[in-house]
Specification:
Blueprint (H helix, E strand, L loop, with lengths): L1 E4 H6 L1 H9 L4 E4 L5 E4 L34 H4 L1
Parallel strand pairs: 1-2
Antiparallel strand pairs: 2-3
Length: 77
């Protein structure tokens, strides 16, 4: 485990990131009671289980959609 002060870590950030990616645990001390730990996370694309037409009836367009609301008439003049 790498343990560094925040000042030491700021000058070595690229190396610390590489170490965290490699699986090394990296901790940075802010003060005697607070630490920051660098961890890696893997993003993945989960296939969505969507079916065509599954939202049918949930979304609609009002019949007067193309009309300008009266509240905006002043802005158009």
């Amino acid at each position: 485990m790498l343990e560094l002060t925040l000042i030491e870590a700021s000058s070595q950030l690229p190396n610390l990131v590489k170490a965290a990616i490699a699986g090394e645990s990296v901790r940075n001390a802010i003060n005697a009671k607070q630490w920051i730990t660098l961890v890696t996370s893997t993003l993945y694309n989960k296939k969505m289980n969507c079916k065509a037409g599954s939202a049918k009836g949930l979304i609609y367009i009002a019949s007067n959609f193309a009309q300008t609301p009266q509240d905006f008439q002043d802005y158009l003049e």
